[in-house]
What does this fold into?
Amino acid sequence: MKHDAADLLIVGGGIIGAAIAYYAAKSGLKIILAERGEIAGGTSSRCDGNILAIDKEPGFDSRMSLVSQELVAELARELEDEFEYRAPGSILVCENDQEMQAAEQWVARQQQEGLPFRMLDEQDLRKEWPHLAKDLPGGLECATDSTVNPVLMTYALARAARRMGAKLLPRTPIQSVLKDEGGNVRGVGRHPTV
It folds into this structure.
C-alpha cells in the first residue's frame, strides 16, 4: 500500500497516538496515523478514563497529573466532539485519627507542589456525601480531578486531526521500517522484511 509522504507517521491509534496526531496536525505537520485494528480499539477502550492527582505521589507525578487535567479541560473547550469530560474532584475518606494525621501531611506536601488539595472534616464529608458512615472523622479532596470517556476522547482527537488534514489508516498494521543506504527512514512496510 503506497501513501503520500508525511512529516510524521504515528503507529497506534489509541488516545496517545490520536493526541500526537491532533497536536502535530495543529502545528501544521503532514500526519499519517496507522492503527493495526480500529481507532481506540486497544488499551484506550479498556481504561477507566480517570485523570487523577489524588492518588499520585507529591512532586513530579502529581504536577504532571495537574498539567494533564489542565490540557483535558482545554480540549473540552476546543474540540468539536463531546467526550464526556467531567471535573467533579475526588475525595479520599479517613477511617481514624491516625489516617487523618497521615492525610494532613499528604495534603501539606501536595499544597507545597501547588496542587488544589484540602482537608475535609466530618461536616465537610457530610455536606459532600450525606450517606457516608457517621463515624468517619474526615478525609482529603483534590478539586481538579476529572474523568473522560477515553474512547470518545480518542475519536474526538482523531476527527479533529483529520479535519486538519491528517490521514487516519485503521486496520493498517505496520510491521517493518524501510531505510535507505544512509539509514534514513524512507517508508514502512506491512510485511516483515527479509
Remarks:
- The two ends are 18 Å apart (CA to CA).
